[in-house]
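sry for the spam today, last one i promise. C-alpha cells for design, 224 residues
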C-alpha cells in the first residue's frame, strides 16, 4: 500500500501531466460548477474580508490572483507546478514556483492578511504542512480561507484516501490523482489544531437547491 507521502507525490505527478489541459479548461470556462457557483463564491468571501495582501496557495494558472488584483489587493500566487506558474505569469502578476513542504522556510519579506486555498488542498501530509506554515505567514488576526468539495456531497463517511477521477472533463486529462477525503469534523479539527477560530462555514450550491457544490471555511488565526 502506498504511503501518504507517495500519494502526495502522485498528486504532483498528475498535475505535471495535466497542467496544459487544466489551463485550457479554466480559461475556456469548461468547468460548469466553477462558472455557475464556486468561482463567485470564493471571490465574494474574499471580497467581504477585504484583505490588502493575499497569498493564493496552489494558484494554478492564476485566475483568482488576477481577479483579486483587479480589486486592488496585493496578491502573490504560489504553485508547485512550473508550467502552471509560467501560464499565470503570462497574464501578469506575481507568482512563485513553490512546493507546500517549502512554505514554512520561504522568505516572502512580508506577512499576509489572508491566505486562500481554492480547491488546492488535495493530499494529506501536504495539506497539514500548509496549515502548519500559516502561523509564520499570516499577520496578527489574519485569515485562512479554504474552498473544497463539501463532504456531504459525497458518499464517504470517514476520512481517508480515495481514487481520483476526471469524469466530466475532456479526454485530454490523464492519470487522475488520488485525493484525501476529510469529514466536516476533521476539517474543523484541522483549523482548530493549528490555532484558528472558524468564523464562517459556507456551503455554496446551485439555485435549484441541490447538494452543495463546495465547502468554504474561513478561519482567523488566534494570538500566539
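last one done:
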Amino acid at each position: 500500500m502506498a504511503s501518504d507521502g507517495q500519494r502526495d507525490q502522485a498528486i504532483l505527478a498528475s498535475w505535471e501531466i495535466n497542467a496544459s489541459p487544466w489551463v485550457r479548461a479554466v480559461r475556456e470556462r469548461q468547468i460548469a460548477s466553477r462558472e455557475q457557483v464556486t468561482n463567485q463564491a470564493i471571490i465574494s468571501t474574499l471580497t467581504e474580508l477585504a484583505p490588502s495582501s493575499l497569498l493564493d496557495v496552489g494558484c494554478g494558472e492564476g485566475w483568482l490572483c488576477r481577479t483579486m488584483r483587479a480589486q486592488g489587493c496585493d496578491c502573490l500566487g504560489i504553485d508547485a507546478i512550473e508550467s502552471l506558474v509560467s501560464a499565470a505569469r503570462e497574464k501578469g502578476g506575481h507568482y512563485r514556483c513553490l512546493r507546500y513542504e517549502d512554505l514554512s522556510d520561504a522568505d516572502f519579506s512580508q506577512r499576509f492578511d489572508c491566505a486562500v486555498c481554492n480547491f488546492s488542498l488535495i493530499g494529506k501530509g501536504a495539506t497539514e504542512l500548509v496549515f502548519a506554515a500559516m502561523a509564520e505567514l499570516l499577520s496578527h488576526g489574519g485569515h485562512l480561507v479554504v474552498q473544497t468539495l463539501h463532504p456531504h456531497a459525497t458518499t464517504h463517511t470517514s476520512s481517508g484516501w480515495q481514487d481520483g477521477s476526471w469524469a466530466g472533463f475532456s479526454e485530454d486529462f490523464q492519470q487522475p490523482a488520488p485525493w484525501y477525503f476529510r469529514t466536516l469534523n476533521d476539517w474543523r479539527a484541522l483549523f482548530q489544531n493549528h490555532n484558528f477560530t472558524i468564523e464562517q462555514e459556507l456551503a455554496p450550491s446551485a439555485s435549484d437547491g441541490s447538494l452543495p457544490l463546495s465547502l468554504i471555511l474561513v478561519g482567523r488565526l488566534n494570538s500566539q
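The chain has a mean pLDDT of 95. ok im logging off now
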